[in-house]
Amino acid sequence: MSKKQNKKLLTREILTQALIGSVKKLDPRYMIKNPVMFVVETGFFITLLLTIFPGMFGEGDTGLRIYNLIVSIILLVTVLFANFAESVAEGRGKAQAASLKKTQKDTEAHLLNQDGSETLVSSSELKKGDVVMVSAGEVIPGDGEVIEGIASVDESAITGESAPVVRESGGDFCSVTGGTTVVSDWLKIRIASDPGNSFLDRMIALVEGASRKKTPNEIALSTLLVSLTIIFLIVIVTLYPIGMYCGVQLPLSTLIALMVCLIPTTIGGLLSGIGIAGMDRVTRFNVIAMSGKAVEACGDVDTMILDKTGTITFGNRLAADFFPVEGADRSDLIHCAALTSLHDDTPEGKSTLELAHRLGDNSQEIPGSAFVEFTAQTRMSGVDLPDGTKVRKGASDAIEQYVKALGGEVPADLHTHVEKVSSLGGTPLVVCKNKQILGVIYLKDTVKPGMAERFERLRAIGIKTIMCTGDNPLTAATIAKEAGVDGFIAECKPEDKISVIKKEQAEGKIVAMTGDGTNDAPALAQANVGLAMNSGTTAAKEAANMVDLDSDPTKILEVVEIGKQLLITRGSLTTFSIANDIAKYFAIIPAMFMAAIPQLGVLNIMHLSTQNSAILSALIFNAIIIPCLIPLAMKGVKYRPMSSGKMLARNMMIYGLGGVVTPFIGIKLIDTMIAPVLTALGI
Amino acid sequence: MLQLVLTLIIYLILVIPVGRYLYHIAAGKQTFADPVLNRVDGAIYKLSGVDPHKGMNWKQYALTLVGTNAVMMVLSYLILRIQSIPLLNPNGVKSMEPALAFNTIISFMTNTNLQHYAGESGLSYLSQMLVIIFMMFVSAASGYAACVAFIRGLAGKTKDNVGNFFADLVRITTRVLLPFSLAGGLLLVWQGVPQNFSGNVVVQTLEGTYQVLAMGPVAALEIIKHLGTNGGGFFGANSATPMENPTILSNLIQLYSMMLLPGACVITFGKMVGDGRRQQQKSKAPETLLPARREGITARLFGQEGRSIFLAMGILFLAGLSLCYWAETQGNPALAEIGLSQAAGSMEGKEVRFGVAQSALFTTVTTSFTTGTVNNMHDTLTPLGGMVPLLHMMLNCVFGGKGVGLMNMILYAILAVFICGLMVGRTPEYLGKKIEGREMKLTALAIIIHPLLILSFTALAVATSAGQAGVTNPGFHGLSQILYEYASSAANNGSGFEGLADNTLFWNLTTGIVMFLGRYLPIVIQLAIAGSLMKKNYINESAGTLRTSTASFAVILVFVVYIFAALTFFPALALGPISEHLTLWG
After folding, report:
1. Among the residues of A147-248, which ranges form H helices?
2. Which residues from A are below 8 Å from B440, CB to CB?
3. pLDDT tens digit sequence for B97-130
4. Does residue B418 sit at the A interface (CB-CB below 8 Å)?
5. Cα–Cα distance, A362 to A335 (Å, whole number)
6. Can you spell out the DSSP letters for A373-432?
7. Which of A94, A283, B178, B494 is the right S-S partner for B113, CB 3.0 to 4.6 Å?
8. pLDDT higher for B323 or B296?
């Protein structure tokens, strides 16, 4: 499931699967789901019949056997190509699913009975509500909620992230996923889903495309394609008597060839593949979309509600300044702060050291120092130097208590400094040397690099960003300005999020948000696009329509772009497919009538060699263009954020104009290639 | 050339105030004539027991429209069948036979005005007034009412009220059709068009021979014929005869009276939709308002959304006009060969007082605005010149008949938006509403109807002996004649290629059916689309939204129309006019 995997469009495995799949899909009962291709298949059956029994529909000319055979073969290939496109997309999804499935091995579970005894059962027998005990080294047998215990869990099977995460009962870190491994300690887990319906099961089904439903936009587009097919059916059916009237008897296979060329086979063949590939692209970002509809909705997002901490900023963790208290020396403060941080691997510690170095401090580790690690009980860390000096840094009240216990005094202006830092939206860390408090480290909330540019990009495509934070309005405004978001909600409570979502939706906007806590669940459900973090609670994941396995809230930005890319791909290939018709008309119409009406030869602007080669060239082009466009359909068209007008002009030039010009060139090329072959065959 | 440009510039100047006036009427705003006309309307409402303020949803509106039209058809059919009675019948015209009466009634009620009879000999003055002129008013008013209801749906001020059909019918008749007809009719009388009840007059000409001059209430019919984009002439030769269209001035009056209202409809659309958007903007919290975009001059005159539609229609119109004018100025090589000078262009079937330019303009206008009146014989146009009117009836959205053309163009706009919307990475939206499966289904259905009617009936006609019997010039031109007849019927245009011997049971019945379906099916479906869109919530407009008020959207719209509508007919056109042209010049 890592991002590097499966970058290649086709592996051998997918290719074989797809080839088998494309033949299997010839079943008319399956084909009817795709009416455009079903018409092509019907055309194939008719021309096949005409090959075996020429003239069976009352046509006088029975010398068309080879010609009919060629037409029927091309039609069959056209259908196979379309099926192949769909199979490739499905195959790529299946490959993803297979790697997920590996984690879904049947495991043994220690089921806790009412009386407290343990029974060994298979994980597949676990039902919702069962309580199991998982100890270190064991695989968690199913999705559930921790009801007792605290342990670190390796979730790399799902997320690809190798560092274990802490799971504990209560709070936002109580949700565990089946297939992950407990690394240390133990957990008592209440199973939250019935067998076959776990989060992983559903993910696999979604990725495989098994539970894929057509999205609303796909349905609307299919309607358009079907109506085009009907229109061209009318054209072709009526053309026969009209041609007769003008003294041209059109061979049935030629009419079918024209028909297949005109109906939108290109997009008809690629449409479902585009949809599956879109889902797949989201999956490659380690985001599981619960439906294609959710991905589609991403393209329409107008407003993004983003949490400040974790999404826009790193959190209150990076040292920005040192404030010595009255009577303390600033360089002494910096020196001591650096000393305590030499072995402190937290962002706070690292950044303190970095800042100290920048400010000219060159503290080295003094041999014989004993480092004291941060614990939840002491809430401070530090170092005992060889000379017996104890340097500590930690939360303000913890250090105060520590100093008081040693008989020290709390300087009068410490609280002023602590409050000043808090009011700036930062977190104060107090530093002391033995019983003397030296001052405060200002841990500033820092905006992640590149965020401002990303918001600028979003603004260019019309997406407004709103930052939610628990900070006071002043701090929130500072951060908002720095990050370049369009709006912010300070002192934000969970219900504020829902109300702002509702307000935006009342204005007709599509809202996206990310969240992880249980109290985010209602807002996630209310939002049109809710991206839950995999580290979040089950409730949040149930409420959201997407889950990010890496628990990286900034991913929502990429997901929106993928949604847009999916829609653009669909629109561009539709435009391309329809624009192709112009050239096909100019190939086939003169060819059909030139025998009876030689003047129409003027319309043969491509100078195709013979009538039959003109018709067959158009038909071959029509078939070949499908596999040629498969890579584009799978990868999606290039997306760059720009205004709608520019984007439309750009895509119109490439796919509209390109769709007009390409077939002229393609058909001419094919014609020069097949003309000699056809002459040799005598048709 | 200059006269064409001048004529069109004057049109552009005139259409704006008319558009504003129409908008005021459609939106129920104040107009200068209210003090008088409110009383007139009030009296009509009282007399007929109509409550003009009672709103209708789209279903009620459509049902009322079709029902009202049906009642009028039955009554008018009876009148045609008994018109031989000596009431306003100085020329002793006989009653009409059933198939022809069936065709005539549908033809006029559907605003088609396809005439399989010659007015002079086929209709009494009573029928001309009670059936023909009456229907010219109500069919135009019905089409316009449907359009106004459609626009109200798109503007979406309410969730299901598209207005009251009766009120719309009355208001549009008393405030637009009647006063405009009165003024225009008097202008025509000034130019010499007869308006009397006397019988035909026999005069001795300068050459000494005798000639029968047909008389009657011609001017009254003539003006509403154009104003209502009806097109059925008082006489068989329609506006080509000096009795209907004597001078270049009367020709201009007729041109403008058919062009003004369909163009004005687009302006009405632009302004009403603009109102809807503004109302929506106002309801938003003020701080979320987008900085108000500066409205350009065209946006103020035509409405944001109106201008792109108007531009698209304009481009299609000019493309057609240029082709027609060019083809006609080329003359006819076959005639040149036998020594007839073609320096003035192809003058066969044209009136000397109008010449090639005014004839080409009139031909393009009458088919674009689906009037169907002719000031030259379309049958004798050069093949490509004749293809333009044919094509414009096939497109049926180049301004189009009263209101209906706009509604058709909106269908294409929905199609364009669907494709372009995807290309900017959003699910499609038009006028602030999402275009989803239901709208696409209805749009597709409405768009299929037109080619289905034209092509399947053409196929039927060329495949049956009854159909082929009507063709006077077999071959490619015969195909053009048949195509033209059904295109004219389906588009509710009514002009004829006139080469077709069409007063037979086959032609009367089939064109009757085509006219009926071509009129009411699309109107009902289009109202359903409006009804479906108005129920939806407005969606937000942002920098990522596809702008449909721009010139580039207009250009895309033109392409969509050509690709979806014209390509459908390309094989038929290739066999008809294009083959004929290539044969002629080959």
Report:
1. 156-159, 199-208, 216-245
2. 220-221, 223-224
3. 999 999 999 999 999 988 888 877 888 888 888 8
4. yes
5. 8
6. ---TTT-EEEEE-TTS-EEEEE-HHHHHHHHHHTT----TTHHHHHHHHHHTT-EEEEEE
7. B494
8. B323
Token pair in block for residue B97? 């036979």
The token duo for A238 is: 């009526």
Strands A118-122 and A511-515: unpaired
* Active site (catalytic) residues of A: 307
Average pLDDT over residues B329-357: 90
Q: Which tens digits make up the pLDDT trace of B44-69? A: 999 998 898 899 999 999 999 999 99
Q: Which of B459, B547, B586 faces A645 most closely, judged by CB atoms? A: B547
Cα–Cα distance between B349 and B356 in angstroms, integer?
10
β-partners of residue A309 are: A313
Question: Whole-prediction pTM value?
Answer: 0.86
Task: Determine the residue among A238, A585, A632, A642 to mutate to test chain B binding: the one whose Cβ has the most chain B Cβ atoms within 10 Å.
Answer: A238
Inter-residue contact A273 to A209 (CB < 8 Å): no
DSSP secondary structure code for residue B291 in this structure = P
Q: What are phi and psi of B459, to 5 degrees?
A: -60, -40
For residue A471, the 8-state DSSP code is S
From chain B, pick out residues whose CB is under 8 angstroms from the CB of A246: 475-476, 479, 575, 579
Chain B CB contacts of A573 under 8 Å are: none
CB A286 within 8 A of CB A643: no
Instruction: Determine contact: B290 vs chain A, CB below 8 A.
Output: no
Which of A364, A366, A365, A390 is CA-nearest to residue A378? Answer: A390
CB < 8 Å from A in window 478-497 of B? 478-479
Q: Does B462 touch chain A (CB under 8 A)?
A: yes
Distances (CA, A) of B344 to A220, A666, B330, B356, B386: 52, 44, 9, 7, 18
pLDDT tens digits, residue range A430-443? 999 888 899 999 88
In chain B, what residues touch A651 (CB-CB under 8 Å)?
423-424
Which residues have C-beta within 8 Å of that of residue A388, sequence separation ≥ 6? none
The answer to whether A444 and A314 have CB atoms below 8 angstroms apart is: no
Report the alpha-carbon distance of residue A451 to residue A446 in Å, rounded.
Answer: 11
